[in-house]
Hints:
By secondary structure, chain A is mainly α. Chain A is built from eight helices and no strands.
Amino acid sequence: MAGGPATADDRELLERARNGDEAAFRLLVERYEPRVAATVVGMLGPGDDAEDVGQETFIRLYRGLDRYRGDSSLATYVTRIAINLSLTALKKRQTWRSRFVRPADGQHDAPEGSWDPREDRARDEAVLEVRRAIARLSPDHRAVVVLRMIEGYSTRETAAILDIPEGTVMSRLARALQKLEREMEESTHG
Amino acid sequence: MDDRVLLVRYRDGDLTGAETERVSRRLREEPELRARLERLEWLAEGLHRSAAASFEPFFATRVMAALRRRDVTPGEGMYEALRHMFAGVAVACLVVAVGLAVYSAVGGGYGGSVVETMLGLPETTLETALTLGG
């Protein structure tokens, strides 16, 4: 879907941004905000953590403008930054919980702490159920579900973004879907 | 290949012609696989609907403000950051080296350093060090 090289329009904006044109970089932020939001909120749930990681994603992009050569799409490049920062944030969150919170049975990342209801604009209960189910997946499984099922990257693109073999994407996806199915059915049938 | 993954790839049109035909035939013949595809459609729809389309309003403004606050320059990657950091260290080292060289060159005339006096060491200048043993 987004695996090709950078578009001409992106290239022009990148070149202008490299030369210090803030307006050009702002346009790139606005253009890629939906993709970064889908990745980061999918990984961390809505809230302050997601906002911070979203901002940091674009700051890293800005800092690394000279390193981006344009042979992969900018969407893929930005998503890679966002997913890596999200995984780091999840690790920090888990480390904090392991030190200060008594571990819940088998939960990798308790969904209750994943988002602030005041900031959650998705009032639809079904959406909240899906997010809760995603939050119960391990970070590795969550990353595959977010990229492959929510963002619609192909298996090959997902493997490239996460730097893992395609076979690993498949096996993680199978296990993640099995768990999601079970979680969703349990919540639907009480 | 796991049936769930097979069905994901089937939905995405990610299979070869022969594989697609095989799955289509199985779907006609196996009610359980059909039910699994329906569950997958339902799950995929839920996942799709759960995707956030944006952050809170004025996100881009906050990003630009953060860039200005942190004084980030475009293309300032790790290499550049390290180069800036170590440029200062290099200048400091150069100043210390020049200072030591000057001190050593003229130090003999001032009766040695405080450290040499405290430790009772003989006066050593660059000249005496170079001629040591010669």
